[in-house]
Amino acid sequence: MTDRVRIGVLGAARVVKQALTDPAKSAPEITVAAIAARDPARARERAARLGIPKVHESYEALLADPDLDAVYVPLPNALHAEWSIRAMEAGKHVLCEKPIASNEDEARRIAGVAAKTGRVICEAMHPLYHGLFDRVAEIMADGTIGEIRHVSARVCFPVPNSKDIRWQYPLGGGALMDLGVYAVAVLRALAGADPAEVTHARAKTRVPGVDRSTDARLRFPGGATGRIKTVMWGWPVFSFTGRVEGTKGKLTVRNPIAPQAFNRIVLETGGKKTSEQAAKLPGTYTCELNAFAAAILRGEPLRTGPEHFVPVMGVIDEIYRRAGLPVRGASLSARSE
């Protein structure tokens, strides 16, 4: 291990530029060193475009590269668990795109392999590494809004292209999978706890088994309630909001999933409304890469390790069951009891 983490990329997905190569320029302990794709020609094209120095002819060859410390996995959802596990078993640390697994069972298997191999595993839930959530945590801790009564998160973004992988059940598609992981992550961050149970859920589908929208009600320890809404096709078209209602007031977070673009924290207490903005820079992806490197090089804790992604996938699974849809990774013809 050097004083930098050398990362190889599994796949030539569009998100690599936004989530890795561009923010790595501002992350002093990260080097993007190699890439591999199913189509080697596409890997070479992407490497030239993004300035990645080495191209491997296969995923297996990249995992066997002794000059790499870690792997970034931006593959379709259904492949996240398989290649995260294979990477850790090959001795690599892993930064995997969200959702890190198709379901809770897969998430637990990933966590188990991480514990066995001693490798760092991080779900790329980049918003949680931004200073916006540090500031929200400070406000929640000082008792400004009192005891929490209700927490909600709404994440809505249109995906009109019916051929997009997010509409394909075998690849782990669905509004809850693509956007719901953000909503559950925001809900946990605002509540400071995991939901005790999912009390109700309903979903609308656009293609068999694939939700275009979900609406779920939850209950937290202590009696507080929660709600998440995710929309990939329908109304509202755009919405990125988290809210906490307490015994003394209300806190609203605008754009919690992309605070580097814009954000706002609005407090309503004692009949008064105030607002503030957390610093936009560094961006969420750079913050995430810095934290990933610190975990590998110095053993610093991560916000989105197994203690985060295992319960998140448990909530996702239960919402699907409550809504009468199969969990991802199950047979499309199967329906949960």
UniProtKB/TrEMBL annotation:
Residues 134-251 form the GFO/IDH/MocA-like oxidoreductase domain. The keyword Oxidoreductase applies. One of its GO terms (molecular function) is oxidoreductase activity. Keywords: Oxidoreductase. The keyword Isomerase does not apply. Residues 5-121 form the Gfo/Idh/MocA-like oxidoreductase N-terminal domain. Belongs to the Gfo/Idh/MocA family. This is NAD binding oxidoreductase. It comes from Amycolatopsis sp. FU40. The lineage of its organism: Bacteria, Bacillati, Actinomycetota, Actinomycetes, Pseudonocardiales.
